[in-house]
Amino acid sequence: MEAIDQSAVQEKINHFANKDVYIHLETTNGAYASHFDETAYNVGAFIRNAKVNYQHGKIVSTGGSYRVGLKLDIGWVYAEGVSDFEIDEKDRLLLAGHDREGRLMVALEISEEPFTHEAEEHE
Amino acid sequence: MSNKHILVIFPHPDDESFGTSGTISKFRAEGVPVTYLCGTLGEMGRNMGNPVFANRETLYTYRKKELAEAAKELDIDVELLGYRDKTLEFEPLDELAQHLKERILAYGATTIITHYPGYAVHPDHDALGAAVVKAVELIEPGKRPEVWMHAITNNHEDELGEPDFVFDIEPYWERKEAAIRAHLSQVDGMMNLIENHEQTSKQIQRLKREQFYRLTLSS
């Protein structure tokens, strides 16, 4: 992944608009947060392969990182804190935000094909 | 040839290296075969390397290779069980247990090393440990392997008392360090700890002492 190029990402978001696409959306502070710090909370959520069709979407700079919102017919997809991006060899848009140690904090990914969901289906 | 066979059953590539690679090395030094049944590929791990080199979609490819390397360091076999990271606790316990029972019998395991359910911090650790206990319960008494359970919670000794087995793995420390290092995408924090801390520090001492509780079944 590399630092987000806002116009490249916006172009890709536009490309996926008004198509059936699959979303991976995730945020996490890890399974060990309250193990290493008793006062911390373990918080995380992910949805893998939500099938959506969004009208339009936008990436907004917050100075350092970005927010992304995708407008659905009956709702929204939203992520804050993404800073890195990649358009991979399967033409998927991968967005993620990492902490100082390189640990993933948030991810939003968009693909026209479902993301892998079984451990051993790939390769 | 040893007629023993140790099965290590944990959910993630790297659990074997952090928790038990000293003990594994000790068994291998004695000529006892060891197989690691690895529950998932750690696809949902949050460490992506530091500096970052993996992403959510490529992480499993790295972790698979890292596990193979660690297994080479430890001279053990690996079987991937094919579940998905973070989801083990949501699988039907009976199905998991049946699957494990079949593998345990197929290997003719004499001792199983797994997590202590309820004392293993990560939900996948607790879930797979519980499934191992259940699997062994399904085997008829007399044919059951011993089960050694690895506890991780900070306060486990307060609740569980002294562990049944304590291994000072200092003689195998280099091997353990190499196995941990093989998990490159995951271990930046741990390698910093190993390199920057006094070898006598609490965390390092913890890594050099591997301990287990023996499962006792009533029937």
TrEMBL record, chain A:
Pfam families on file: DUF1806 (PF08830)
Source organism superkingdom: Bacteria
Protein name according to UniProt: YojF family protein
Species, as recorded: Halobacillus campisalis
UniProtKB/TrEMBL annotation, chain B:
InterPro entries documented for this protein: BshB2 (IPR023841), GlcNAc_PI_deacetylase-related (IPR003737), LmbE-like_dom_sf (IPR024078)
Reported cofactor(s): Zn(2+)
Full protein name: Bacillithiol biosynthesis deacetylase BshB2
A Pfam family assignment: PIG-L
Top-level taxon in the UniProt lineage: Bacteria
Protein's gene: bshB2
